[in-house]
Design brief:
Length: 226
């Protein structure tokens, strides 16, 4: 039986997503009328199509095409958990996901949108449920969690089959508990967030612990604090 999302297949076949061996963001070519890119990663890009509203299409680059089947398997194992998009099916080089409205936590900081504690608790519960399905909830960060009607929802599950804990979410929760009230409702410039992110990535090289780094950030951006 033909499903609604297959209406977008013709337009999606015109788009080329090219990946990089250096883990750089993918490059897109062949965009056509009625198709919008709503997200770019290192393995894939996400699109919406006017011909199939309500769906998000995650197109993988040729060098990351094997990850499509892996991620489809993850979504199958997470079926029924409300904190993740639903996967409806797949095409030659793409997954078909539910289109989720909301603002990423990253954009909440940029726009000054308050992030309620409930959103944090939702992600914590989502992570526990992921573990209950024998998967590993990692690579959860500000850009792949959205605030949806005051609740948290996680968008990217591509690394849940990998081992190890990258501690990204744990560190975000730690910072939220200790420091977020100082900046809640304030608009934080993109350059400031990127500076914090770049410094965080290099913490191991700098031999600086997380708390010392956080104190350094507070001193750097006093005008954003209440």
């Amino acid at each position: 039986m033909r499903t609604e999302w297959t209406k977008a297949d013709k337009e999606l076949r015109l788009i080329t997503v090219t990946g990089s061996e250096q883990n750089e963001p993918v490059v897109i070519a062949g965009m056509t009328e009625g198709v919008q890119c709503i997200g770019i990663g290192t393995d894939a890009a996400v699109f919406t199509c006017d011909s199939a509203p309500g769906y998000a299409f995650k197109l993988y680059s040729d060098i990351a095409l094997n990850k499509k089947e892996i991620e489809a398997g993850v979504y199958e194992r997470l079926a029924g958990i409300p904190y993740f998009p639903h996967c409806f099916g797949d095409g030659r080089n793409y997954l078909v996901l539910s289109l989720e409205s909301g603002t990423t936590l990253y954009d909440c900081l940029v726009q000054g949108v308050p992030i309620p504690e409930q959103a944090i608790l939702d992600v914590e519960e989502a992570r526990a449920l992921v573990r209950s399905r024998s998967l590993n909830p990692r690579d959860i960060h500000l850009k792949n969690v959205i605030l949806q009607n005051g609740r948290g929802k996680v968008l990217d599950v591509s690394e849940y089959v990998l081992e190890g804990n990258d501690n990204r979410w744990e560190h975000l929760v730690w910072a939220y508990r200790l420091f977020y009230k100082m900046i809640e409702g304030r608009k934080i410039p993109v350059w400031a967030l990127e500076a914090v992110k770049n410094g965080y990535v290099k913490l191991d090289e700098a031999d600086v612990n997380l708390e010392a780094y956080a104190q350094r950030i507070i001193r750097l951006f006093p005008r954003f604090m209440k």
